[in-house]
Amino acid sequence: MSETKASMTEHLSPLRDFKPQHFLWEVSEDGRVGTIRLNRPERKNPLTFDSYAELRDLFRDLTYASDIRAIVLTGAGGNFSSGGDVFEIIEPLTKMAMPDLLAFTRMTGDLVKAMKKCPQPIIAAVDGICAGAGAILAMASDMRLATPDAKTAFLFTRVGLAGADMGACGILPRIIGQGRAAELLFTGRSMSANEGHSWGFFNALHGAEALEPEAHKLAQSLADGPWFAHTMTKTMLNQEWAMGLDEMIESEAQAQAICMATKDFRRAFEAFAEKRKPVFEGD
Asked: Are residues 183 and 262 located together in one domain of the fold?
């Protein structure tokens, strides 16, 4: 075994062998791409109290899994997710007191925070129904691919709730613009795949058979790229929301200087000089 391969083997995270109870988790053969598959196809992959918590914990643990370098998030059976399960979440919520309700909404918000804070780029592969909390999971991902049949709805207002759920009022306008976000959050109507693509919510549309292969192709290309630099890009994309221009420029100056000190930066230069493709190691 080469020194590089031996070093990688010594630092494999236990998440490669993780066995979740409430969704499916797979890691690619090379160990660099993880796939989360919501797996209740008979109900269009709704979320429950337990699946929320387990997803939150997985994304938190991914912070320490540097061998896993990109994530694909998708659903089974031709749908992404129908959101919170009506009988396993919605009905119990109608019977809770305020302290328990707040504990629940904070927990679901913690899932979005964990997705934003984990260093791996997350690519949502969206087919069919993508509604409620399912739409939030797609929104919280870093990139989104979809099929032409995908229907995305932030439908909280249709069940008597605010569009302000799990960061939607802050994040969605940054993706598609204030007016378009306001329309979706006030009306709860479905956004078609073509609308989502033209508005910038979806990065690309693919046929149903090509969706996951294209998502994994994109994830693999990111995983094989300059891993440390990608983590810095994700961090800056999220941190700079609350910064003024001076703070943005200074933060990016520091981030880029740190990246320039990596071996990957040197590898890229040497490969360019030798007219070959660089092989990035993430250090």
From this structure: no
Per-residue pLDDT tens for 192-236?
999 999 999 999 999 999 999 999 999 999 999 999 999 999 999
CB atoms < 10 A from the CB of 250, how many?
11
Residue type, 109: G
Q: What is the pTM of this model?
A: 0.90
- Report the alpha-carbon distance of residue 75 to residue 152 in Å, rounded: 14
Which domain does 242 fall in, by range? 227-273
Greater confidence (186 vs 272) lies with: 186
Distances (CA, A) of 7 to 11, 14, 18, 105, 231: 7, 15, 21, 41, 20
- Tokens representing 78 are 């031709």
Strands of the chain (E only): list them.
24-27, 33-38, 70-75, 122-126, 129-131, 143-146, 151-153, 190-192, 204-205
Q: Which residues pair with 224 in a beta bridge?
A: none
Residue 170 lies in a domain: yes
